[in-house]
Design goal:
The protein folds into 2 domains: 247 residues, Rossmann fold (3-Layer(aba) Sandwich); 38 residues, no CATH class. Helices cover 44% and strands 23% of the residues. The strands form 3 sheets. Strands 3, 4, 5, 6, 7, 10 and 11 form a 7-stranded mixed β-sheet that branches. The termini are far apart.
């Protein structure tokens, strides 16, 4: 990497740091903290029983020694591990608006990472294609999050395909304790349903499907050569034919409905995003729904 490239990377990382930190402060202050539970309950102290205390919290050993009832007091363990599982396959480079799916994924992951460190939580990163491309173990602190953001923005994957099941299996293997896992992908993959269910049972799993509007509807612009970014396969389409455009939309709608059923059926939370819409309202609404459910 030459000095100019290094300076450009630092500039972009700093730019996204400033933007996402402002969004976290202005829009998400307090919401992140309220919607994600800690890993469990920590014992804090033993105190004398008061009317209204849960009988099941009575410490029978201390009660027997003193002759007076005492209860154990617990506090929620607030420290969390946030795991960002981000799809870096070739299909993420597509974008018909101002940003690609990859760029939207990177900014969302950055907002989540900065939200985590503001609450003294750990952040881990898994970048995947059809293999595990890169793993950063969970740590805390601003410098760690800057490294995470830099890797999301500038990492160059070796492979082009997508294997969601492999990514989820890897997360289960390397993250031993319960964590909050954000799976950020366009979900152009098959055969990941079992891995999704297993990860959803082990962790607090949030699926984030990221799509572009042109994946749902073709414009009428005449002959168009489209290429599968992951396989390289090309196909020529006459987009001026209304029946072809209609069939494309129907197939796309069927695919998205199938994906939604699979995600909901696995019992995981879903945060759908599109490149032509601001993501912050959707994220705030997602946090609000989770807070209400708690």
């Amino acid at each position: 990497m030459n000095p100019n490239q290094a300076r450009e990377i630092l500039r972009k990382v700093r730019q996204i740091e400033i933007r996402t930190k402002r969004l976290v402060t202005d829009a998400l202050s307090g919401q992140y903290h309220s919607v994600f539970k800690g890993r469990g309950m920590n014992f804090e102290e033993v105190r004398e029983y008061s009317p209204g205390d849960e009988v099941r919290t009575i410490d029978w050993n201390v009660t027997a020694r003193t002759g007076r009832p005492f209860v154990k007091k617990f506090t929620e363990e607030r420290e969390l591990t946030i795991v960002l599982v981000v799809d870096v396959s070739a299909s993420g480079n597509f974008g018909s608006t101002q940003q690609s799916k990859k760029e939207l994924s990177a900014e969302l992951a950055s907002v989540l990472a900065y939200s985590a460190i503001r609450n003294n939580d750990k952040v881990a990163l898994i970048l995947f294609s059809d293999q595990i491309e890169h793993y950063i173990p969970p740590r805390k602190g601003r410098h760690h999050v800057l490294r995470v953001v830099r890797e999301i923005l500038f990492f160059r994957p070796k492979n082009r395909g997508t294997n969601l099941g492999n990514a989820l299996d890897f997360a289960n293997k390397v993250i031993s304790r319960r964590a909050v896992v954000f799976l950020i992908s366009d979900f152009h993959a098959e055969g990941f349903q079992q891995a999704l269910r297993l990860a959803g049972k082990r962790h607090d799993l949030v699926a984030v499907p990221v799509h572009d509007p042109k994946e749902r509807a073709l414009p009428s612009i005449g002959l168009l050569t489209v290429e599968d970014a992951e396989t390289g396969e090309q196909l020529e389409i006459d987009t001026s034919d209304s029946s072809i455009r209609r069939r494309f939309s129907e197939l796309a709608q069927t695919r998205f409905q199938k994906l939604e059923r699979e995600l909901r059926g696995a019992g995981v939370d879903v945060l759908p995003l599109q490149t032509d819409k601001p993501y912050m309202p959707a994220l705030i609404q997602f946090f609000a729904v989770r807070a209400h459910r708690r």
